[in-house]
Specification:
Distance between the termini: 71 Å
Helix content: 40-55%
Oligomer: single chain
Order of helices and strands: HHHHHHHHHHEHHEHHEEEHEEHH
Radius of gyration: 24 Å
Number of helices: 17
Largest sheet: 5 strands, mixed
Length: 338
């Protein structure tokens, strides 16, 4: 009633036609020029059948919620003390201990094969999907298509991921519309994007399939393989916390905010006046982290293994959350398994 009093019949007609066209457009993504170009590429590059791809894209939906989610990642809106409390909870720590106990043989074997600390494997799966319970509710085809064709800022990246996903669906023999994941198209217990699946997912239990969704062995082995391939060094330190005052006059540019590759040695930092007890040799490469607490700052030196964690997600906050959660899980686990 309210709309009819405000809009004239002609405007109502225009609005109605617009809504109809939107529904038609959403239901016929396969006719979109970008999608047609993509389909042609899949035909020429990977020998897909054009008719099959057009039928597939006829069922794909563009999701506005996906565009909204990728535009406001948590790492950009939260300080460390806010971000930390999302993951460092008693429930997630206890869940990590339980997951470790239930999969102890697989986790121990993964450590033996790849040299990755058990608590790191457990913490990654805990942060990513709450030990497999929250793997995402978006259809991967919808997520990747939305970002490939409606998110120009990163369209080339997601077009590439969509290609990887379609190839892996063919190789692994599953319906592309059957898999769900995150708003960015990450899948399974460890939340691998399709290119990561293609490069790092493994059949860890030897059943002939790479199942990172419901097979704990494959998920655990794949996470360990990912870390090994990204430079994790067995037995090496991850970070050391420095006891520095907030009025230390640090003005240097060697502070890490994102994607933190160690470039200076611990000795270099000490020569610049950044000193503290460290668990590594002075020749070890490091990067300085400055994390914001509510009324102060924390200072850390991070090493190669911290950088390996950051290959999973380039956010410094994410990497530190994984590391600190891993230490809490390890301590809780050891208290029950002395």
């Amino acid at each position: 009633m309210f709309i009819s009093k405000v809009l004239t019949p002609s405007l109502l007609s225009v609005l109605f036609c617009f809504m109809c066209n939107q529904k038609i457009y959403a239901a016929t993504l396969e006719h979109d020029p970008q999608v047609q170009q993509f389909i042609n590429e899949m035909v020429s590059e990977h020998s897909f059948e054009k008719d099959n791809l057009e039928q597939l894209f006829a069922h794909v939906k563009i999701k506005q919620k996906i565009l909204e989610a990728i535009s406001r990642p948590a790492e950009k809106s939260k300080a460390w003390f806010e971000y930390r409390q999302i993951f460092l909870t008693d429930k997630r720590i206890k869940g990590g201990v339980k997951f470790w106990q239930e999969n102890i043989d697989i986790i121990n074997y993964a450590e033996q094969v790849y040299g990755v600390s058990p608590e790191i494997i457990v913490a990654i799966i805990g942060v990513e999907t709450y030990y497999g319970r929250r793997q995402g509710t978006y259809r991967v085809m919808d997520a990747l298509s939305t970002l490939a064709f409606r998110y120009p800022k990163r369209s080339p990246f997601f077009r590439s991921e969509l290609k990887h996903f379609l190839v892996m669906s063919q190789e692994q023999n599953f319906d592309p519309l059957s898999k769900t994941g995150s708003y960015a198209g990450a899948m399974g217990m460890g939340q691998f994007i399709p290119s990561s699946f293609q490069n790092y997912a493994i059949d860890f239990d030897g059943d002939g399939k790479k199942n990172i969704w419901t097979n704990n062995a494959d998920a655990i082995g794949s996470v360990a393989n990912y870390f090994k391939r990204h430079g994790w060094k067995e037995g090496q330190a991850v970070t050391d916390k420095l006891q520095l005052s907030d009025n230390n006059n640090i003005t240097m540019d060697d502070r890490c905010k994102r994607s933190c590759k160690p470039t200076l040695s611990v000795e270099d930092y000490k020569n610049r006046g950044i000193k503290g007890n460290t668990s590594v040799d002075d020749k070890t490469n490091a990067i300085l982290l400055i994390l914001k607490q509510k009324n102060s700052k924390e200072y850390w030196l991070a090493y190669n293994n911290f950088y390996a964690i950051s290959r999973y997600n380039h956010s410094t906050l994410y990497s530190m959350a994984v590391y600190q959660l891993s230490q809490e899980i390890k301590q809780a686990y050891q208290s029950t398994h002395p």
